Amino acid sequence: MKTRLFYLFLPIVAFNFSCDDEEKPKSVPIVVTSSSTDVTPTTAIVSGSITSTGNSTVIETGFVYSSNVSQPTTADNVLKSMSVSENFSVTLQGLTSATTYHVRAYAINDVGTGYGEVIDIITENAAPMVTELSIEGSLEINSTVTAKYKYTDSENDPEGTSLFQWYAANDANGVGETAIAGATSKTLIIEDEQIGKFLRFSVTPMAATGTTAGNETKSEYSTAVGAENVTFNYNGVSVTYGIIISNTTQRKWLDRNLGATRSAQTLDDYQAYGHYFQWGRLADGHQIVTRTGPADANVTVGSGTTTTKSTDVVPPDSKFIIDSEFGSAGDWLVTQDDNLWQGVEGINNPCPTGWRIPTKDEWDAEAITSLADGFDKLKLTYTGYRSVEDGGIYTSSTQSYYWTSTVSESGGNKYSFQVRFSDAFYNSMTNRANGIACRCIKD
């Protein structure tokens, strides 16, 4: 009996285990340190990029750097980038000048940290600096003053031949500042043209090696150059005044009114108002007042008044002579005398030797447009005046009056010119017995 063979044909089914059904292997990100730009002594911009995320989301990028670790990691200096993206950059700050830094980019995912290759950055050499600038020496004519300062350099490069320039200005705010011609050394010999000026200097530090030139740095202004201070006897007391040289005329003026205790600090600096002279009189005490403030009420007059006019150009006492009726044009003399105060040899000249009361034309030549302008140019202040009528003090807080030596005649009576400042400049004739401030000019 034959055995029959039976074949069972079943369909063949293939099971394809596709790779998409399996997770891709993860790894740390692959990072490139791209470049460095804009390197300064203390900063540098560095850039990097991610070429592979390692099949995982990158959660942080940035840079690691060190000046002494050749392969820096996040255990060293780290600066994160502001956002996570394929390309990223940061600005390294607070670096030390003239130093080599080892820098590389990094990126972090949930597997770990990937680093780019290390690049070296050499920060620039820092420029030298100067601080603590000051002027040493006496601020007087023919004196030598010296620029003092502290030189520093981050890399300890020694000082080379630093550059200097001296400047002169009209006040401590730098108005009218000009460079003094030829004044380019560390020292300055003060000359006539600097009298009354405010000085300062600049230094451009120069290193002998490395980055040679720093930035020009200027000092603060000095106080006013006091010139050849003028010491003289005023009303029986030895006083010392400074000198101002006019920028307009180059004439020398005393730096304050006769009787003032100091050169004016402000327009209403009552300590600089000075005393009130009757025209043509000596500083015999009649002019003296005492002030405790800038107002009329803040004044105490000196030795009193009299209505008895003097028969001599040197009155018998120091009283202020008044004339309530304006007789003889309000003079303190019985017989008027036009020769008083005329030049340095003029009778009763109250100024120091070689100085005198200025003429009307000399006041005009200064081209002073207002009291504020007068303060800027000659340290003029409010003064007010003392009246010929009653000896009282008026307009102390609003106007300024100064005598000239110029005389005039009107209606048969003789007057003298005054200059008056408020919002403008005025020349006018006035009674010679009025008490008005005096400012002296060098002959």
Automatic annotation (TrEMBL):
Domain of life: Bacteria
Pfam families from the UniProt entry: IG_AIR9
Protein name according to UniProt: Fibronectin type-III domain-containing protein
Domain Fibronectin type-III span(s) in chain numbering: 28-129
Database matches in InterPro entries: AIR9-like_A9 (IPR056284), FN3_dom (IPR003961), FN3_sf (IPR036116), Ig-like_fold (IPR013783)
SUPFAM superfamilies for the chain: Fibronectin type III
PROSITE patterns in the record: FN3
